[in-house]
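Handout, section 4.2: multi-component inputs.
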Amino acid sequence: MVVNISLSKSPTDSINYIVTNAKVFVYENINAKSELPHLGKGKYSLQTFKPQAGITYHLQVEIPGYETVIASSSIPNGNTKVVSIESKSGYNNAPVHGTGDTPQIPVENIKLNVFDDKAIDDFMGISVIQKQVNYFYKPDGELEITEVPDKYILSWYFGSTDIKIISEGIPDDIEKSIQLFRDVAFGGQNEEVAFYVKKEIKSAYWIRFFKFSPEAFSYTKSWILHDYTKDYDFWEIYEPLPLYSNITNGHGIFAGYYSRLYNVFPDSVITINP
Amino acid sequence: MKKTLFIFLITCVLFARSQEKFIISGLVKDKTTGEPLIGANISVGDLGKGTSTNEHGFYSIEIQNNTQTNITVSYIGYKHYKTNVKAGPIIRLDIFLEPGVEMDEISITANKSFVQKDVPGMTELSIKQIKLIPILGEHDLIKTLQLLPGVQGGSEGRNGMYVRGGSPDQNLFLLDGTPLYYVNHLGGFVSTFNTDVLKNIQFYKGGFPARYGGRLSSIIDLRLKDGDNKKFSGSYGIGLISGDITLEGPIKSEKTSFLVSARRVWADVLLRPLTKMTFQQSSMGYNFYDLYGKLSHEINPYNRIYFSFYGGDDHLGYFYNVPAEKSKSYAKYIWGNILSTVRWNRIKNPKLNSDYTLFYTRYRYKNNIYYKSEDDFGQNLYTTSVHEGGLKTDNSFYLAEKVKIRFGGGLSGNWFIPGQISSNYNNVVGISDTIIGNNNNTSALNIFAYSEADYSPVNWLNLNVGVRIADFLVENEHYFSIEPRVFSIVNFGNYGILKLGFSQMTQPEHMLTYSGSSFPADIWLPSTSTIPPGTSNQFSIEYAKILNKGKYELVVELYSKTMKNLLEVKAGVPLVHAQNWENNVETNGKGYSRGIEFLFQKNSGSTTGWIGYSLSKAERVFQNINNGKPYPFKYDRRHDLQFVVNHSFNENVDLSATWVYGTGYPITLNNGIYEAYHPVEENIFSPESSFFIIGDEQAYLYPGKNWLKMRDYHRLDLGVNFRKQRKKASGKTSERIWTIGVYNLYNRQNAVFYYYAHENDQKSKPIRLYQQSGFPILPSIKYSVRF
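Output:
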């Protein structure tokens, strides 16, 4: 667990005000208080402190001259998990707004088969990591695409037409590196969730599956919309959305989540061992 | 005994006959053009009894049998008409008023004009008033309405009319009784209304008579002229923005007349070549046009038919051509209305005047984006529209001397087409067609009926009680509403007039603005099974007094308006792509608006004008916005002041000066920032790296939605009309008018937006707060001819 503490500043201020003199305490449930020492640059952490799933943690921060800051969250528990992943190569026709251009985009169509624990409300997400690519035009004009070793990116062309994703209300127009969904739209014990991601080379890639606490889910979703709207200008119709915060007497986020990483190959089906 | 009985019976008969009342009815018209006059005052004797003509120029009045009664007819801008009428059988008396000015008896006329405005918050604008106030060389109806207390124009560069805390879609513009959905050109710079074709403008912002419905905040009832049925006349003009021409005249003298008018922006003739010269490979063009037409025919003295038409569009285009790459593309945007009305007006009997209307109106927006290169081409098309067509009847029934009834009803079909994007792409491999988004077309049926009774039990009291019943059927759902409208007028004579009113309104159609198609589009959507109609309740109290024998008028009005079931589009979400658009709007919003308005007006003499002031507050509340707390409405303006002065130096020169002041509009601006955890956006060190990082991005802090007021707004406009009459050998006269004006004379940098940016856009420079300003000083000139 790492806690970053800073002071908010005026938008015209160029200096960041990190806090180095805070006392940071973390409680497990109502017991066992641990103090996180300052490691420098406003970061507070304790190497020996490893949060566990299913436990509620309470944060308390005391800074001289400020009200005590408190927050709570837990790391999700439960049996909901990915059972299998199907990856199939294909193409999307993607109109480019404003140009009339509708190129064909090579994609991997991903189906995640999720076993849902009906006893628990689950908040989930998925991101896709692949190797960075280089584009090179040969002398004959042909485009060559090659992967860059040891360089990784999260694809900007990453979306879904699945109603479980769309119903979260984050439009496809907004570029994002994570897709969010909940089990509220799940109907059966095993549920399939579909995505697509741009993939120009048939090589391995990674899928990270997240299980969020409600606070982490709300924050991640709110960040996507806040980041999209915060720099609105006069010509925009919408107005900025504030960022979610679960901090009392402050702003920010204290929330638990965990993730699992899966290595996937194009045109394959992998079954996940429990 | 028999003789006594006979005398008694004769006396009874004579006495009964002496109490018998008879009806005089007819039309009041302009003597020179034959135009029926709306709102002309007809008074009987010297007792202040009287009535006024309805929107078809019809009146009906009772007189006693055994009297010779003086009838006086008056109308602003016309000489009084007096006649002496001896009662007899049913009398049809059509009255023709001669244009001119009566300087005496103005107080009686003015006092009666107050009385005849039977609801609080109602203003009748004269065309002459609008033409005295040129703004940017144009005599614009909406710009003039924005000079009244309680009416906001919104930000410069954006269209809109915001009445007592309401949004633009809550205003109902009626052109000859038919709704017009889009009323602006050039981003709100000018409206679609050509004042040369308008005869009468009634603006309701407070009390709404039962004959009006479907919107929450205001009604603007516009009547087109019928066309001069005695002689040909017209006008044409050209200014910096547009040129226009209007013609009217008889087809058959005093029976059939026509009116046509066209207006078009002419600047695009130069704009596209100029931009092409400047940018070589690209150019842009913009134009708009309005086209009005009306045919009027009198079948006989009791039946008249009319056909009205309006069509108008805005066209915006960007064009790109790169010959070296053999590619070209364009993006074209078109938006506008068409409207048509067929109307039959019938004087069924001396007491009943009926109107039957068949109408159709449509607003649509579309864009066409096209790309072609040597190897391929692609095209995106998007269209959204709303259509309404139906029939209705309106009736004025003069039940008795003190009772007038209006009743009517109708039904209309409404078709809502939110639109979808269709694209096709041809390449060397093959053809692919894609339809994106769902075709959420919806149709609805709107049925309504209304009744209002206008009753004056005593001379000093007038009551108007009405109800409007409507049923909106959509998607196996129907929304039934009963909307009471109650008004009373107490006439304290020289001490003034007090008006009290309550109106309940229902609006089953919502307008949402969509920004996802590279240009803002207004989309009209119906109430659905999950989104009910909006409603409003408005109370108002108005005190009005004429001063100094009618030279001045003072009106003070208090109002309180509550709105429910309002909508807001969620930030960044689409309406077109959505499977179900209702999921992308915040619903169940409430609006609260309260205020006090003052209007002090001078209507006569060489100097006329008004001072208007309003103190008001308008808020909104949505569960998921601003944490459910009330926040200022986007165009909440605490203080609003208008000075409008027109001075006629002589019959050839008149000057207009307008100064407006208002407290700044609210804005949502961040007042703090902090470092925040955020998802990695693109580059990541390794697949195992943490997904959430800190240090690259900052979160913005907002104390609340619309928490900050921008700096105060004020502006001075001047306009001068130079007129010259010219008499031809034929005896006809024509008038030439030069209109010269300046908008924002002292070049006030009024704020429309605030934003943060690095100095000179250099990231090494500090961040400052900047202001985006509205229009600077803008001169204008227009030349027009009336013949």
